[in-house]
């Protein structure tokens, strides 16, 4: 996406712009005008894909422990974009049967609701990153009430193939912050900013990448404005405020000296406010779960092992995560993950957070079809993976002290 502005500071056609003025100048990307590309289906290989957020998968991409689990069963485990046949779309629409995704919450909700059936295998929640309202640092704005009658930006992807996950968290966060301060949308002006969002099968973006970390090392991802599309509009005064994520984007933006947060949902004790494209969700296709459950179990074994290691070695995990996530630096990353359970789970509270995100998407037209989150969740794979790991540990530990290791005792 472009973040260019002309000399007057007004957004150009390829960047943030008022929908009514810019939409005719930006091409909409649809299933009808786009050719998707995926590798031929082969159940002897499993693809994985991660978002740049807190997850065991983003630690494992450097450790390689999940790949070892797949080697044990003779299956290749590789990053989605390690071959030229796969474009970026499977990360967002899960159009590969043999793909496992660990990433932001909103795209897999949209997939399961409207595109194809999947299984929710586990989640990891960062329960204190609900979102902030950012304004210019030197503006005479210190409270949400000071935004009354002013403009708040709201991005709009013109790519209808994929879910507009960034806009969803913006809209959700804006409405929550207004409500927490006795305001409604009627008290402010919401200004839409469409952008093309069309890079997912751009030939320049399709050079094979062996590891997701490589993508970030090829660019200064902590300062890449493609991750913060509305920031130029705020800086140039086109809008007076924008939503941003607490503790990640927030600190990067404040470190410039140009912006400040006047509201922060992460400071409230109400855990239901903390659903900003999180919890991070692990999903696989229903066909994989039903026809090849051993592949799902192998993946979950890797996530449990890596998650436990990350919980015990938070500084080391932070060193790895800093390469791909959006905290300021390693120490800031450590503070961000210090109290996060890195082992994926399907706890009642986390499933309730998933349902909050799903209900918002349904009520605001981001998905067409409703579904039962409890039925989407598939805890049997996490349970089986944990049992197998415990069995393996039993055999290993007893085998070290006995002539012949006894059989494992968990069925």
Automatic annotation (TrEMBL):
Keyword DNA-binding in record: no
Enzyme Commission identifier(s): 3.13.1.3
Gene3D superfamilies: 3.40.190.270, Periplasmic binding protein-like II
Keywords: Hydrolase
Single GO term (MF): 2'-hydroxybiphenyl-2-sulfinate desulfinase activity
Superkingdom of source: Bacteria
Region (Disordered): 1-20
The protein's name in its UniProt record: 2'-hydroxybiphenyl-2-sulfinate desulfinase
């Amino acid at each position: 996406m472009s973040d260019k502005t002309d000399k007057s500071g007004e957004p150009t056609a390829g960047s943030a712009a008022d929908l009514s003025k810019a939409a005719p100048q930006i091409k909409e990307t649809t299933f009808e005008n786009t050719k998707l590309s995926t590798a031929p289906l082969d159940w002897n290989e499993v693809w994985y894909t991660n978002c740049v957020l807190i997850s065991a998968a983003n630690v494992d991409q450097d450790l390689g422990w999940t790949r070892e689990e797949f080697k044990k069963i003779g299956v290749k485990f590789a990053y989605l974009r390690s071959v030229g046949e796969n474009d970026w779309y499977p990360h967002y629409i899960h159009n590969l049967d043999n793909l496992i995704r660990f990433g932001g919450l909103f795209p897999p909700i949209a997939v399961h609701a409207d595109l194809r059936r999947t299984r929710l295998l586990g989640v990891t929640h960062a329960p204190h990153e609900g979102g902030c309202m950012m304004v210019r640092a030197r503006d005479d704005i210190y409270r949400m009430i000071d935004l009354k009658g002013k403009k708040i930006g709201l991005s709009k992807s013109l790519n209808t193939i994929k879910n507009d996950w960034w806009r969803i968290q913006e809209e959700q966060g804006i409405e929550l912050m207004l409500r927490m301060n006795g305001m409604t949308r009627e008290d402010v002006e919401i200004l839409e900013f469409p952008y093309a969002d069309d890079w997912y099968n751009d030939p320049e973006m399709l050079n094979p990448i062996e590891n997701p970390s490589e993508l970030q090392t090829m660019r200064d991802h902590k300062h890449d404005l493609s991750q913060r599309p509305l920031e130029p509009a705020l800086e140039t005064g086109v809008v007076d405020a924008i939503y941003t994520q607490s503790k990640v984007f927030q600190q990067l933006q404040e470190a410039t000296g140009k912006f400040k947060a006047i509201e922060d949902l992460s400071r409230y004790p109400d855990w239901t406010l903390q659903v900003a494209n999180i919890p991070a969700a692990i999903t696989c296709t229903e066909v994989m779960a039903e026809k090849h459950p051993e592949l799902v179990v192998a993946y979950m074994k890797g996530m449990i092992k890596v998650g436990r290691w990350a919980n015990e070695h938070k500084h080391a995990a932070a060193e790895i995560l800093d390469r791909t996530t959006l905290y300021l630096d390693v120490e800031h990353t450590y503070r961000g993950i210090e109290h996060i359970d890195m082992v994926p789970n399907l706890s009642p509270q986390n499933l309730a957070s998933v349902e909050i995100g799903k209900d918002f998407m349904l009520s605001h037209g981001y998905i067409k079809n409703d579904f039962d989150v409890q039925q989407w969740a598939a805890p049997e794979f996490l349970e089986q993976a944990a049992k197998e790991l415990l069995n393996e540990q039993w055999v290993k530990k007893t085998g070290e002290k006995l002539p012949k290791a006894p059989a494992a005792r968990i069925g």
